[in-house]
Design a protein that fits this description.
Elements: H1 2-6, H2 8-17, H3 20-50, E1 53-58, H4 63-76, E2 81-87, H5 89-97, E3 103-106, E4 120-135, E5 142-143, H6 145-154, E6 171-174, H7 180-188, E7 198-199, H8 205-213, E8 218-223, H9 224-228, E9 235-240, H10 247-252, E10 258-266, H11 271-280, H12 283-292, E11 295-296, H13 315-332
Parallel strand pairs: 1-2, 1-3, 5-9, 6-7, 6-8
Antiparallel strand pairs: 3-10, 4-8, 4-9, 4-10, 4-11
Length: 334
């Protein structure tokens, strides 16, 4: 625009001595310059918006850690906005595939048959132990895997007195089908059996905890991190086959109810997205994970089962390349 105005006098002289076609070309050149400046401004503005905001949804088991990480990241990067919602692992996967979220958090692997888009990228950030929880009135310290199957699956155990507890009806709390925790529970604890019990309408780990805490005789299952980040006194954890959800028991294969936590993206094409994913693997966030009851990737000792060709890979990459096979092997070689 400034160029056009500064040439106003010359333009008048030009009109007196040149063909009208030249005048038209001059004006077209001015318009082209103005258009280029406006276009550049718009592109810059759009890019800036994309790089200052992230929307994350999915696993409510991973949600406590991602919320804490997002909070500290925003403090360290003023002007950045990261919104973290739950909804369940399958909701998170659908959201990221449909571009409704930038990141989809999940307790389960994205099956390529269900999510075939080759740009869907997996980022493993930690391991989560899951735990059985019961109402505070229940004094049973442990259940066998078979007993849990008979409570949630076959329905042959219906009263706590059948497993050494009080004469009280058992109320299994069942998570919605969108839950990745439910998929893990069905696969590794129920042996593929369908669940029966009190079906929750909302896929939320805190909803499970609240329901168990306020329902006499109730039993459910949640991520240990959710239990550790809540102060409710109405529920407590119990062991499975006399084993607690500890790192040692998971690595040794004595405790099967756990999974890797995934953050799925459709590529990593923005600086903010790449930066936040790297931050999730930072020492600060991995320590937060440990404090909440997750297991940092570096503590899974993946190098013990790594082929020599990969022994120098970073732990996060080892997790990504070996976690599914290792997860299956740890549970099934017993």
């Amino acid at each position: 625009m400034l160029m056009c105005l500064s040439n106003k006098t010359h333009k008048a002289q030009f009109k007196q001595h040149t063909h009208p076609l030249s005048t038209v070309l001059f004006f077209l050149l001015c318009l082209l310059i103005i258009s280029s400046i406006t276009g550049c401004t718009t592109t810059t503005s759009t890019t800036s918006t994309q790089q200052t905001s992230l929307n994350i949804s999915g696993s409510t088991a991973l949600q406590p850690l991602v919320q804490k990480a997002a909070s500290t990241y925003m403090q360290q990067h003023p002007g950045t906005k990261i919104v973290v919602n739950g909804g369940g692992s399958k909701t998170g996967l659908q959201n990221v595939v449909n571009h409704a979220s930038d990141v989809g958090d999940s307790d389960i692997y994205a099956d390529p048959a269900l999510y075939p888009d080759p740009t869907l990228t997996d980022h493993i950030v930690c391991v989560i132990p899951f735990a059985m929880i019961v109402n505070a009135q229940i004094n049973v310290p442990t259940l066998t895997t078979q007993q849990i199957q008979d409570i949630f699956g076959t329905g042959t155990i219906t009263n706590w007195s059948q497993v050494g507890g009080p004469d009280l009806t058992i109320v299994p709390v069942v998570r919605p089908a969108t839950s990745g925790t439910r998929d893990t529970f069905r696969k590794y604890i129920l042996g593929g059996l369908d669940e029966r019990g009190k079906l929750l309408s909302q896929d939320s780990s805190t909803a499970v905890l609240d329901t168990v805490a306020h329902t006499p005789g109730a039993i459910g299952y949640i991520g240990l991190s959710v239990m550790n980040s809540n102060t409710t006194s109405g529920a407590h954890t119990i062991a499975i086959d006399n084993h607690q959800p500890t790192l040692q028991n998971i690595i040794s294969g004595q405790y099967n109810f756990w999974s890797y936590e995934h953050m799925y993206t459709m590529g990593d094409d923005t600086s903010l997205l790449s930066s936040f994913l790297e931050y999730m693997l930072s020492t600060q966030v991995q320590q937060q994970a440990k404090n909440l009851g997750y297991i940092p990737i570096n503590e899974m000792n993946l190098s013990q089962i790594v082929p020599q060709s990969r022994e120098n890979m970073p732990q996060s990459q080892l997790a990504l390349s070996l976690s599914q096979a290792n997860e299956e092997h740890t549970r099934e070689e017993q």
